[in-house]
Structure formats: structure tokens, C-alpha cells
Amino acid sequence: MTTPSPTTTTSTVQAIEQAEAAWLVALTQGEDAMTSLMLEDSRAVHGPVGKIDDRETFVHFTWTRRRMVFAKAEDLSITVRGNTAITTCLQEMHIVFDENLPPFPVQEAVTRVWEETAEGWRLAHMHQAKRMPPV
Asked: Engineering a disulfide at 73: which of 21, 43, 89, 111 sits with its beta carbon 3.0 to 4.6 angstroms away?
């Protein structure tokens, strides 16, 4: 579901959808891929107790502690207000915590705030809340 402002175009919504898709791919590619999609002053709220991290801390933690081998999103909703887009979705990730065990599925309810820049849409803020167990 998309809630466009009167000036939101189909191409804007498609660009945000592409940014969302690029983020899911970046989760499986590493720190550089994630960092390239985030604004320098990005913040992420994550973890079971609401940990708040800056961009570098978040991507390093994400990549070194939870190597993702698969990520997908469902029920994507996009709201556009000027140069800001707010997205919400259910995100499922399959994470390798131990190389001797099969990937562990994790599902989160996620809200992302994207800002339009000269380089395209970049992540300004993200809030992830785990859903246990994944459905």
C-alpha cells in the first residue's frame, strides 16, 4: 500500500521500492554495501532491548554478528512527504550465527526513513522490532 502526496509520481515510488530492494541485497553483501545506502548521520534502533547505533556501529554489528544469507520483505507500505519517504514492512532474514548450523530465520517489523539525495534515496533512520517466532 502506498500513501502518495499529491505530487508523488509513480517513478518516485518505484525509486523507493528499488532502494528497499537494494537494502535487502546489501544485507547479504556486507558492510560497504550497507554503508553506501545510508546517510552519514543515520541511526538504527534494533535488538531486543532497543539498542540505538550510528551507521558504522550498526553495519559492523550487523555484518560481524549476524551474517545474513537471505533477506526478503513483505507487506511493503510507502508514504512519501516531499523528499522523505517512510516505509514499513515485515522483513525476514536467514542468519548464520554458527557455520556448523543451518541459517536461523528471523522476522522483524521494520520502519525505514529514506531521504532523497543527489545519489538517490538513502537511509536516514531505521527501527527494527523482532517478531518471534517468524510466521
From this structure: 89
Phi-psi region of 36 (alpha: psi -120 to 50; beta: other; left: phi over 0): alpha
CA distance 6 to 119: 24
Residue type, 47: G
> How many whole angstroms separate alpha carbon 49 and alpha carbon 71?
22
> Cα separations (Å) of 81 from 5, 32, 55, 90?
6, 28, 23, 22
**What amino acid is encoded at 6 in this protein?**
P
Q: Are 55 and 35 in contact (CB under 8 A)?
A: yes
- The secondary structure of 14-65 as a DSSP string is HHHHHHHHHHHHHHTT-HHHHHTTEEEEEEEEETTTTEEEEHHHHHHHHHHH
Q: Please provide the distance, in angstroms rounded to a whole number, between the alpha carbons at the two ends of the chain.
A: 21
Q: What is the pLDDT of residues 78-110, one digit of tens each?
A: 999 999 999 999 999 999 888 899 998 989 999
